[in-house]
């Protein structure tokens, strides 16, 4: 399986990147860990790839008051190794070892994963649980979107043509738990759960992250009873729902422990 | 259509400048243009790990990086690390522990395992398994591979 032909540009500035993205058939290339497989399998055939990995302003991580701002090009490995993430946004630190494998974490990026909006991916659920704020730019303006309004459907987001996700702000502190069930380490999740305070967000349970807000375990279980996770190749909807309940109880037990 | 981009990279210490079609991924470039066939092409969608190479000191999937993206990068393959003897201890352990049968996964497995060796830390079998979880072996059942890696990472003083 080899990719079809396409043109390639590696802009040196954000302004240049945003101008290139206005071209018809242009697509953003960040870490490429999902895009390149889809090119190799010819599921995607862009005319122009705009490689944004040269934009150093998208690779920064900064603590501002009550939020940690992470640039879209920060890799999973950088998040995994970051003491700031571990200290201030524990949910992300807990989630990142579940993402694929070491060689993929070295290239895959936060922004790439969020912009792709894979229903089985870890970050979208984390971003929703944390009520993160996304910074989106086009060649004219910048806008901010809350994670809860960013994910629109299966691989569908609020990003419009010519727009680029540049950074994400995560609130710091609070209690978080991340749990995921897979058959083998690094596989796509059968079902997963990202919890921050009283916000329980399941992934693998629908086309977008499924949010349950609950003050008690019974309330959360009642809300989960109404969720119908889509079956995958190996697991029925009923199995996934059962496993979601198992994760919910585990998360509740962890959160209830005194810190 | 010709979209070739002039690309300069260092491969196993040797500078290379070539016009490369953007559609060509790094492992195909190494194998087909440079004749470095030690890195293998398995699944071509990032699942099997047979194409694992090092770019700027970090292991990556050779099939999930375009060769043009390696412009300005330092690329190291199993050939380079064998010639420099960096892999010698690990290779000896793989040999002694029977950590390969057909050998298709071995170059990628060595590249991934060397990551742990370089860190100079000790690892549990579970941690070793997690680190090589992105490298598939269809012959050994992994036990002997973990044995070999464990001996090297935990045996070095």
Molecular structure report:
The complex is a heterodimer of chains A (259) and B (157). With 259 residues, chain A is of the alpha+beta class. Chain A folds into 3 domains: 7-51, Uridine Diphospho-n-acetylenolpyruvylglucosamine Reductase, domain 2 (2-Layer Sandwich), CATH 3.30.43; 61-171, Uridine Diphospho-n-acetylenolpyruvylglucosamine Reductase, domain 3; 176-256, CO dehydrogenase flavoprotein, C-terminal domain (Enolase-like, domain 1, 2-Layer Sandwich). Helices cover 32% and strands 25% of the residues of chain A. Chain A has helices spanning 14-20, 35-40, 76-81, 83-88, 90-95, 102-105, 110-116, 122-129, 147-150, 217-224, 237-256; strands at 7-9, 26-29, 48-51, 61-64, 67-71, 133-137, 142-146, 151-153, 156-157, 164-171, 176-181, 191-196, 199-203, 210-213. Chain A has a 5-stranded antiparallel β-sheet. A 4-stranded antiparallel β-sheet of chain A has the order 11-12-13-14, sandwiched between helices. In chain A, strand 8 and strand 9 (156-157) form a beta hairpin. In chain A, helix 10 runs antiparallel to helix 11. In chain A, 45% of the residues are buried. The model of chain A has no long low-confidence stretch (mean pLDDT 96). Chain B is an alpha+beta fold. Chain B has 2 domains: 5-81, Beta-grasp domain (Ubiquitin-like (UB roll)), CATH 3.10.20; 85-155, DNA polymerase, domain 1 (Orthogonal Bundle). Chain B contains 6 helices and 5 strands, in the order ββαβββααααα. Chain B has a 5-stranded mixed β-sheet. In chain B, helix 3 (88-96) crosses helix 6 (143-155) and helix 4 runs parallel beside helix 6. The interface between A and B is medium-sized, with 32 and 32 residues.
